[in-house]
From TrEMBL:
The keyword Membrane applies. It comes from the Bacteria. PANTHER family: OUTER MEMBRANE PROTEIN TOLC. It is found in: Cell outer membrane. SUPFAM superfamilies: Outer membrane efflux proteins (OEP) (SSF56954). Keywords: Cell outer membrane, Membrane, Signal, Transmembrane, Transmembrane beta strand, Transport. This is TolC family protein. Transmembrane segments: none annotated. Belongs to the outer membrane factor (OMF) (TC 1.B.17) family. It comes from Croceitalea rosinachiae. Residues 1-19 form the signal peptide. Its main location: membrane.
């Protein structure tokens, strides 16, 4: 029993440790960021408000229905309803009724407002989706930055491990009198410099992890980390498409373009609604009223007046009124005309913004297309440079090991390798990110596969 309890405790501890050290993939980071971003939550509330506005616009097409009641008491002189006799006694009155109004015609503005409300809900959805696209790109960039810094740190640690072996061997040679003490000092300086690079690398990893965690609205920075994976250059045939082809496709599905186009449609609908104010408004109404008073008098068959009961008065003194009201705008201080002019200006502004957004998208795609080619060439050049630096380093090491090269020249060869490896890592992830941007413009979801 004791052994079983021990095993359970160990398993629980292992599970808790694994839960705390969860490693996040890019897909998990993107999904979590989209689901938990505060700006997304704000835009979602705006979308809900737009849906409520649509319900309001639908309600404007329906007749309203209102009930009202009035209770009063009169003390002093008054006229008795029914008999028209004067009285000074207290008079209690109760009046109530129902009323309903329906807009029959207002230049079709009510129908157009309903259509506009539906369009506005769609526009808010595009706006929300566009924000999510930006979040995905920002998260991908931050994620790749963590990967780049981690890989650079691993390289620095591996380089330091090699230098430690050289340092140990050089110390032995110096102590045996084979090598001068200056060689040892030079190797020690190289090791110290690499230690500093490791410290700086650890700081960069930490900062980039914090930046990514903040994008995800995660505050437990110590227990947040990404999956420890090494990514090679992903295969892609995106460059088989010209920048023009990618731009034409992006115009169809990009949410920022859809949002700009929807703003143009909304502005056109606003212009139609403002022009509708030039036309007459026709409203129908219906009213039903009832009343009671403790002084209401009606004549009987003999001509004598009496006060009917409460329920009798509700039917005796009720009444119905119905009809229609026509309002024809003649002059309203140029407000309608000015509103139409403002709507026309807003429409032109929305059209200009759409063209600006298209131009910005085309510029970004052209730049991304060039960047993919440029950064890939930079990566290939960095790879060739690293290969040459490594060959030079191996040759220098052979000479250093047999005493044909001093420690300073050898450390310079090693430093050039370090710099070349750092350049390869930087250009590699620069290229991957630019590649993913271009694929994203083409409609390919973000992934490092």
């Amino acid at each position: 029993m004791k052994n079983k309890l021990t095993i359970i405790i160990v398993l629980l501890f292992v599970c808790a440790s694994q839960a705390q050290m969860k490693k996040w993939t890019l897909e998990e980071c993107v999904l979590y960021a989209v689901d938990n971003n505060l700006s997304v939550e704000q835009f979602e509330l705006d979308l809900e408000t737009a849906k409520i506005d649509k319900t309001d616009a639908l309600g404007n097409l329906l007749p309203d229905l209102n009930a009202s009641t009035t209770v009063s008491n009169n003390v002093g002189f008054s006229i008795v309803p029914g008999s028209n006799n004067p009285t000074t006694e207290s008079t209690f009155r109760l009046n109530g009724g129902f009323s309903s109004n329906l807009t029959l015609f207002n230049g079709l503005r009510n129908f157009k407002q309903l259509h506009r409300a539906k369009m506005n809900a769609i526009a808010n959805q595009y706006r929300l989706d566009d924000l999510k696209d930006d979040i995905r790109l920002n998260v991908a960039n931050a994620y790749l930055q963590v990967l780049s810094n981690k890989e650079a740190l691993k390289v620095s640690q591996a380089q330091y491990a090699v230098t430690e072996q050289d340092l140990k061997r050089t110390r032995e040679l110096v102590e045996s009198g084979v090598s001068p003490r200056g060689d040892l000092l030079e190797i020690e300086a190289t090791a110290a410099n690499q230690e500093q690079q490791i410290v700086n690398g650890e700081g960069l990893v930490l900062i980039s992890r914090i930046n990514l965690a903040q994008l995800l609205q995660i505050t437990d920075y110590e227990n947040f980390d990404i999956a420890d994976e090494s990514f090679d250059i992903p295969p892609s045939d995106i460059l088989d498409n010209s920048a023009k082809v990618i731009f034409d496709k992006a115009l169809v599905f990009r949410n920022d373009i859809k949002f700009s186009q929807s703003n143009v449609d909304l502005a056109e609908k606003d212009l139609e609604i403002s022009k509708g104010a030039y036309l007459p408004t026709l409203t129908g109404f219906f009213n039903y009223n009832i009343g009671y008073s403790n002084r209401n008098e009606i004549p009987d068959l003999n001509g004598n007046f009496f006060v009917p009961s409460f329920t009798d008065q509700l039917w005796i003194f009720d009444g119905v009124s119905y009809g229609a009201q026509l309002n024809v705008p003649i002059f309203n201080g140029w407000s309608t005309r000015n509103n139409v002019k403002r709507s026309k200006i807003s429409l032109e502004r929305a059209k200009l913004q759409l063209e600006l957004d298209k131009l910005a998208l085309e510029t970004n795609i052209q730049q991304a297309h060039v960047d993919v080619t440029t950064f890939f060439k930079a990566y290939e050049a960095a790879e060739k440079t690293l290969e040459a630096r490594r060959l030079a380093y191996n040759y220098a090491k052979e000479r250093f090991d047999v005493g044909l090269m001093n420690a300073f020249d050898f450390s310079q060869a090693q430093s050039r390798v370090d710099n070349a490896e750092a350049t390869v890592i930087r250009t590699k992830y620069d290229y991957i990110f630019r590649l993913k941007i271009l694929e994203f413009y083409f409609g390919i979801p973000l992934s490092l596969d």
